[in-house]
Design brief:
This protein has about 180 residues and is of the alpha/beta class. It is built from five helices and seven strands; from the N terminus they run H-E-E-E-H-E-H-E-H-E-E-H. The protein is about 40% helix and about 20% strand.
Length: about 180
């Protein structure tokens, strides 16, 4: 009987040590509301330059992770464009990051077809999906001027709704802290 208790004690201690080690070495998720979002690098298809989240610091930014083959992504793009058209002059930006594995020209053609004038970025590496721990597309993150996540939406969304416009106007009226 004492051997059984010894084995149970060793197993429980091992589990506790394992859990403590995972907690200690696990990376910070970085994708929680009211926390700064992780930095990324992607190609701006308009300029062919590499850009990062740091390039959007100081602006209220909608980071939208999408793909050309995604039907819900196509559905939400017009509302994003309308929102952008009405608030861009106040400092609102959209960083729409395509995760398409294909040609950048296909992504550019998609943006032209839909008349998108906000920033179209491309990340074929999958880095953005890993950093932002996405579960699919579209997935969006609304950031304040300091890059802190204010809202996260998984699935297509009407970004031009009055509730979203009001939230973004409030964020635009707040100064950045950094």
């Amino acid at each position: 009987m004492s051997t059984q208790w010894t084995v149970i004690g060793v197993v429980v201690a091992g589990l506790a040590l394992g859990a403590a080690a995972l907690t200690w070495v696990a990376p910070d998720s970085g994708v929680e509301i009211n926390r700064p979002t992780p930095n990324f690098r992607a190609i701006d298809l308009a300029t062919r330059d590499s850009v990062s989240l740091e390039d959007y610091r100081g602006s209220v930014t909608l980071v939208n992770i999408w793909a050309t083959w995604c039907l819900p992504c196509r559905d939400e793009m017009p509302s994003m464009q309308t929102l952008y058209d009405s608030l861009a002059t106040r400092g609102f930006k959209i960083a729409a990051i395509s995760i398409d594995e294909g040609s950048p020209e296909d992504v550019t053609a998609f943006a032209e077809k839909f008349g998108l004038t906000f920033d179209i970025l491309h990340d074929r590496s999958g880095q953005v999906e890993r950093l932002y721990q996405t579960t699919g597309v579209p997935e969006s993150f609304l950031l304040d001027r300091d890059g802190v996540i204010v809202k996260r939406i998984i699935s297509a969304h009407d970004w031009n709704s009055e509730a979203n416009r009001s939230l973004i106007r409030r964020l635009l009226d707040q100064p950045g802290g950094s």
